[in-house]
Amino acid sequence: MNDADWAFRYNGFNVFLGRWARTLGLAAALGWGTFQGVGNDYVYSEGIRTGMINKFSHRGVVWKTYEGEMALEGIASRGNYTGANVWRFSLDNQARHGENVDDLAQKIRTSLEANQKVKVSYIEPLTTWPWRSETDYLVVKVEPVQK
To answer: How crowded is the C-beta side of 78, counted as CA atoms within 13 Å?
Structure first.
């Protein structure tokens, strides 16, 4: 085998490998996009949590989202660490479930300032876009808890 035959076979192998790599890359990108698109609308779980709001902010560099933390009743224990059970949540910027984001934000701020216990209803989609929220727990309803 001379050098020209070797170069042709080697170059043919690279072309073959390049096609496979491009095909696999395109298939992976399409699969990820489909998962994100479908998962954004599919509600994986929904529930209610009760506690005290201890942090709430409107933050982000490119996409501004409402993010918060709520101290739940009870104590969390993980390995050698025991402390408060904190739950991170977001408000859905796209308001896909009929909620009024500004009204929810005001209710959360009011309960935070009044140091009042609240009951929060939330949904958890399979996945969320980064401009929609930072966490997967999207608050749809906030109610004060009567003592």
So the answer is: 5
Q: Encoding tokens for residue 24?
A: 């696999």
Query: Which alpha helices (DSSP H) does the chain contain, by range?
Result: 3-39, 101-114
Q: Indicate the SS3 state at residue 147.
A: coil
Tokens of 12: 């043919």
**What is the pTM assigned to this prediction?**
0.67
Question: What is 43-144's CATH number?
Answer: 2.40.50.140
Per-residue pLDDT of the chain (147 residues; tens, 9 = 90+): 555 555 555 565 566 667 777 788 888 888 777 766 666 676 788 899 999 999 999 888 888 889 999 998 766 666 666 667 889 999 887 766 677 888 999 999 999 999 999 999 998 887 777 777 778 898 999 999 886
> Cα(first)–Cα(last) distance of the chain, in Å?
89
**CA-CA distance, 115 to 92, in Å (whole number)?**
24
Which tokens go with 76? 């969390």
Tokens (6 digits) for 9:
């076979």
Strands 81-91 and 43-59: unpaired
Q: Which two tokens stand for residue 121?
A: 């209803």
